[in-house]
From TrEMBL:
Pfam families: Barstar. Residues 30-121 form the Barstar (barnase inhibitor) domain. It comes from the Bacteria. InterPro entries: Barstar, Barstar-like_sf. Belongs to the barstar family. Gene3D superfamilies: Barstar-like (3.30.370.10). It comes from Deinococcus caeni. This is Barstar (barnase inhibitor) domain-containing protein.
């Protein structure tokens, strides 16, 4: 059975069951971004600051987020962002989500151009998780 880390990243994909275990077997670093408590752009940027372990000097804007995700000095060559509670976030904040997804997909495309991988994995809380 194919799994997500067997192929190059393609957009925002559903997170596999036990993503950290699968990622470890493929030498992929996983960073968890918790979207559950996001209320606005400020708290969204804080979620990335915390999830990516960024310094407080992080600019907390779309350009800064893109730069961090595409900077070879700041991130591993094989990185997966686990977007926790993504579906609920998308429903609650459609405009903010549209901006976020544009930045994430642009960063994913730029990573691919430089022979790096950025997986974007949408993970839902266990209560909603459907196992295929």
């Amino acid at each position: 059975m194919m799994q997500v880390f067997d192929t190059a990243p393609q957009g925002i994909q559903n997170a596999p069951h036990e993503p950290r275990i699968l990622a470890a077997g493929h030498q992929v670093s996983v960073r968890e971004i918790n979207l559950g408590a996001v209320q606005d752009k400020t708290t969204l940027m804080l979620a990335f600051l915390n999830g990516l372990g960024l310094r407080s000097t992080f600019g907390q804007n779309w350009d800064a987020l893109y730069d961090v995700l595409t900077d070879p000095d700041q991130r591993p060559a094989r990185l997966a962002l686990l977007l926790c509670d993504h579906a609920h976030f998308r429903r609650r904040h459609p405009h903010l989500n549209a901006d976020l997804e544009r930045v994430l997909l642009d960063a994913q495309a730029e990573s691919a151009r430089t022979d790096r991988h950025l997986w974007l994995l949408s993970e839902e809380p266990d209560s909603d998780t459907r196992h295929w």
